[in-house]
Write a structure and sequence with these properties.
Strand content of chain C: 25-35%
Chains: A alpha/beta, B alpha+beta, C alpha/beta
Number of helices of chain A: 5
Strand order of the largest sheet of chain A: 2-1-3-4-5
Structural class of chain C: alpha/beta
Oligomer: heterotrimer
Number of helices of chain C: 4
Strand content of chain A: 15-25%
Order of helices and strands of chain C: HHEEHEEEEHE
Structural class of chain A: alpha/beta
Strand order of the largest sheet of chain C: 1-2-5-4-3
Largest interface: B-C, 44 and 48 residues
Distance between the termini of chain A: 12 Å
Chain lengths: 145, 397, 173
């Protein structure tokens, strides 16, 4: 019975914590855009939370520079497992055009395990919604539901 | 008499919890802010060095990704710098198209700011409305350029895509619609008595301080400095159309908001005139076909939504620049917060820091501790303080 | 502070900065450009003033006269400070200070050259706080010393960067 309750609870609301690891803000604005009336993902129960301790999904944007790296690692450590990490945008996936930079600290999956890759510069809102759906599916599998 | 305890409220990256390197560190005595220390570096990606290794036609793509909100401002200044160094003129058609894309971006960026400011103050309806109207502007940009952000429109010598005659009527229609909505939003925001009480005399930047910190953009124009690169150093089509520079004198957050909203209306005026002139121009060249790299120094500037963007390039005749310098407007504006936020209450800190329109990510890195390292206010707390203050005054929704 | 006040009062009389409607663009005034050129040449005749284009001037000056010339541009002429570009070239480090005279749309770029082995120059923070951040940036990315710059903390690079880590030097990497 508890399993059914958990399933229902998880399917209802996914708490997302957004980690900005040196992005250009485009991806971040597009994430916020999802909350606005045109796309309105809040009706799917998706919420942006203010603390990684409540997060089910970590949405990481940006190319991860050296100054921000240990904060990203610390946020990942604080997020209760199992959680899903999504690399959002080309910068998080591969570093994009910043691979040559002296301040580049490696693409995200070099440091933390990434489950979902949402590509684009920035990803279109439709791609983001698809990515979040994949993340929800993966999370359900991880939590054994 | 007990001394007022001086507390340090750092407003730093990644919210709560620890000892983190702070981003904005507020020093507070009682309820008043008495000092501010700012730390950067979380976004530093080394663009200038990357540009030294790229050819001149690759550089606009690199600089576009400096900031996603004013994403066309950097390529605009970039191609101007390269054209200045090479001393070439661009075709008229390209000039009009550049102005159109630049002004559309200005509208979208100002609406974005209005939405975020509304959210910080507790007017979530304003946030939703502003961003909803912003969508029609983004649709226009997608129609012209192919993408909602990061347009890849600019190249040294001209633009990469033309605005064909068939696109103009639907654009004018969307523009008329957007005009009405922006006017309605402007009136709603500027006539609200609670917003007047909440934002007037908050975060005041005096003209003398504005000059000392060399601020630019709406931050400067709200403090009485009549500086706008589109008027001072005309480029593209800005000298060929009629529009007004918006300058106010109060220097507070309300003035900054008013400047931005009224600028949106001027932008629609510019776009309409440019589209009209484009219709009358015969189809023609949009590219001056630069054939070799510039040999010499060039400077390009553009009035981005946040202020003057400045690019400097030094070429030696080859395909790669020797030195490339980029100065975003926020570099000068954010530092002025040191004086603008003095004397505000903690509840006003959030909106004051956001009034210079820094990158969204800058405002994300905000949390607060006391001198002993104990967490006092997170960004969510500061937001709540701000929103509660508005509610106490009788506003918000 | 007193200087800034005096400067902004002068500018107001001139109609140059403060006033909105009172602001008068003189960018097509030949006399305006000639006047500024004359003032520059009279103030510092030892410098090399190169009028590359109508609104783009480059001024080579000696490093020890930097504060004097910058004060002239910033306070006497009433220019606005844009930014400074530091560069590592074969004959030394050059810093190009960009000043904008907005009513003419003119950019006066003041260049100083410093030796490679001990690049030191006076800090311009004596003129105003707007110069601080770019000097901190040049200090960390190029290793240039600014005499009188109080705050030399890292601005952009990570705080734990080693002392000799200067990414914009040609010898880097």
């Amino acid at each position: 019975m508890l399993k059914g309750l958990k399933k229902a609870a998880l399917a209802r609301s996914l708490w997302i914590y957004h980690v900005a690891a040196s992005p250009c803000n485009n991806c971040d604005i597009e994430i916020l855009d999802l909350l606005t009336p045109r796309f309105d993902v809040e009706r799917f129960g998706l919420l942006l939370t203010g603390s990684p301790r409540h997060a089910d999904l970590l949405l990481v944007t940006g190319m991860v520079n050296k100054k921000v790296l240990d904060r990203v690692l610390r946020v990942y450590a604080q997020t209760p497992k199992p959680c899903v990490v999504a690399a959002f945008g080309s910068c998080a996936i591969s570093g994009d055009l910043f691979v040559d930079s002296y301040n580049f600290a490696g693409p995200l999956d070099k440091h933390i395990p990434v489950d979902v890759y949402i590509g684009g510069c920035p990803p279109k809102p439709e791609a983001m919604i698809l990515g979040v759906m994949r993340a929800i599916e993966k999370l359900k599998k991880l939590k054994d539901l | 008499m007990a001394e007022l305890e001086r507390k340090i409220i750092p407003i730093g990256p990644f919210h709560p919890l620890q000892e983190e390197a702070e981003y904005f560190k507020l020093t507070v005595e009682g309820e008043k802010v008495v000092g501010l220390d700012i730390q950067l570096g979380y976004m530093h990606r080394g663009h200038e060095k990357i540009c030294e290794g790229k050819t001149y036609d690759q550089i606009p793509f690199v600089v576009e990704r400096i900031c996603g909100i004013c994403s066309t401002s950097h390529p605009f200044a970039c191609v101007q710098a390269i054209e200045d160094a090479a001393a070439i003129e661009i075709p008229h058609r390209a000039a009009y198209i550049r102005s159109i894309v630049g002004e559309l971006e200005r509208i979208h960026s100002h609406l974005l700011w209005v939405g975020l400011a509304g959210h910080f103050l507790g007017y979530n309806t304003v946030w939703m409305w502003a961003w909803k109207y912003r969508e029609s502007v983004l649709e226009m940009l997608e129609l012209i350029t192919g993408n909602r952000n990061h347009y890849a429109m600019f190249k040294p010598g001209g633009v990469r895509r033309d605005i064909e005659g068939g696109m103009i009527p639907p654009l004018l229609q969307v523009l008329d619609d957007a005009d009405k909505k922006i006017l309605m939003l402007t009136k709603a925001v500027l006539d609200d008595p609670v917003l007047h009480k909440r934002l007037e005399d908050v975060g005041v930047l005096t003209p003398e301080m504005a000059v000392e910190y060399s601020v630019v953009g709406p931050t400067a124009r709200a403090s009485g400095l009549a500086i706008d690169v589109r008027k001072d150093d005309p480029h593209a089509a800005y000298d060929w159309v009629e529009w007004e520079e918006i300058v106010l004198h109060e220097g507070d957050v309300f003035a900054k908001a008013k400047v931005r909203l009224l600028e949106c209306l001027e932008s629609t005026k510019i776009i309409r005139q440019c589209l009209g002139k484009l219709k009358d121009l015969p189809d023609g060249e949009i590219d001056a076909h630069m054939e070799r790299g510039p040999d010499g120094e060039g400077v390009g500037r553009y009035e981005a939504p946040r202020g003057e963007v400045f690019h400097y390039v030094k070429g030696d005749g080859s395909l790669y620049p020797r030195r490339y310098k980029i100065r975003a407007p926020s570099f000068m504006n954010i530092k002025s917060n040191e004086v603008a936020v003095l004397g505000s209450s903690v509840a006003d800190a959030a909106i004051t820091l956001a009034a210079v329109d820094p990158c969204y990510c800058c405002t994300e890195r905000i949390a607060a501790f006391n001198t002993k390292g104990k967490l006092l206010y997170t960004w969510d707390d500061l937001l709540k303080l701000s929103q509660e203050k508005t509610a106490r005054m009788g506003g918000g929704s | 502070m007193a200087d800034t006040l005096k400067r902004s009062q002068n500018l107001e009389k001139d109609g140059a900065y403060i006033g909105g409607k009172g602001f008068c663009h003189q960018r097509d005034s030949e006399a305006g450009f000639k006047n500024i050129e004359k003032q520059c040449r009279e103030f510092y005749p030892e410098g090399e003033l190169d009028l590359v284009r109508k609104r783009r001037w480059y001024w080579e000056i000696a490093a020890e006269d930097l504060v004097k010339v910058a004060d002239f541009c910033f306070n006497t002429l009433g220019c606005r400070f844009l930014i400074a570009t530091g560069e590592d070239i074969p004959r030394g480090f050059t810093i190009l200070y960009h000043f904008s005279l907005d009513r003419l749309g003119l950019l006066i770029n003041v260049r100083v050259t410093l030796p490679h082995d001990d690049p030191q120059v006076d800090s311009l923070t004596v003129l105003g706080r707007g110069f601080e951040w770019i000097e901190r940036e040049m200090h960390e990315i190029l290793g240039i010393g600014f005499r009188g710059l109080g705050d030399t903390r890292h601005l952009l690079l990570p705080d734990d960067s080693p002392d000799d880590y200067h990414p914009y030097r040609r010898s880097f990497g």
